[in-house]
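Final report, closing paragraph on structural work. Over the funding period we assembled a curated collection of sequence-structure pairs, and we close with a single example.
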Amino acid sequence: MAKRLNVYIVDDSAMQADIARSLLEKAGHTVVTYQSGADALAHLPAASRLPDCILMDVMMPGLDGYELCRRLRAMEALAATKLVMMSTKAYPFDRARAFSIGADGYFVKPLQPATFVGELERLVADTLVMTFWGVRGTLPVSRADTVRYGGNTSCVSLSFPDGRLFIFDAGTGIKALSDALLAAKRTRIEGKILITHPHWDHINAIPFFAPFYIQGNQFEICGPAHGDITVRELVAEQMHGVFFPVTVHEFAASISYRDLSEGSFEIGGVTVRTMLLNHPGNCLGYRLEHRGRSICYITDNELFSADSEFYSEEYVERLADFVRASDVLITDCTYTDEEYARRIRWGHSSASQVAELGARARPKALYLVHHDPDQSDAAVDAKVAHIRDRLGTSATVLAPAQLAEFEL
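Its predicted structure, as stored:
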């Protein structure tokens, strides 16, 4: 069970307050309600236990939710308290205003009984949810011996408790993410898509991402330009009428594009560092850092074996520094050692090379992705076992299955 929360609700509507109270108390949380901002402010200094969360309506007479939020955020004693707005106003302007004055979250009324409490619990705990939608490389596969890990190509999502959505790559896995967003009836989605590089298995399902065709959604597609070819041109070209029947002009969502190079950027309120990887063309690895947590996404990437004429100690050590001590390292582990011997300079790494990187960088969790399409689930198991034997208990080593979900 989630931590038992102490929640204050400030809402001039007794009916709306009772709905929120009922849902929270049913989940085991303690709730105190006030019908005005002034009443809540008067009682807060005398509270024997500070609230974990204060839920406040936006439209209240006298002291409205925005002004209440501004005053509460200025109180040093409430620095650790999550301030959350709730309103029938579903407009992007009002949501943006709430966050600009210090709100941590924004719920649109009517509250959704099936999801409200869980979303609030994750918001208070500041829980990030990472989901793997595609873990294969090169080609999607559909065989009986690949069912356990799944057959979709590269796509991983990172959901923030305030609703922000980051997506790494747009292989066929993004279609499964699209289906999940539609099933959850998500609207007004604000997303960032971080493309590693424009090889087909990392972008070929962009045309099938349904939220792009829904007005009100906002997405920024970020990735490396290739010479004078921008990210926008790379996306548009694969949807050119010669190759695909629907062009980017059919997108109804607000879509912007951002060319990235190697460096450090602020994207969607998150610090994102990038590093050029050892792969044909421009390919970026990503490191996201958020409130003491770090997630690295490193694919496609060839490390080479130490006895190879192409091996670069300088590059391997620089990459190790880039991903060092991360909470999660998601990394290319395309080949077994035997397979790699026949595929040198194809731009991908072997199990032993990944084990060496893990030994140097010491991530807390090492997640293996981009499995060769010819590999069975048993072959993926063997790669995991090989790396676990090498690293021992120094890191959690997993090959996440398609649809696997992790909380950070």
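The chain has a mean pLDDT of 94. Residues 262 and 275 are 5 Å apart (CA to CA). We thank the funder for supporting this effort.
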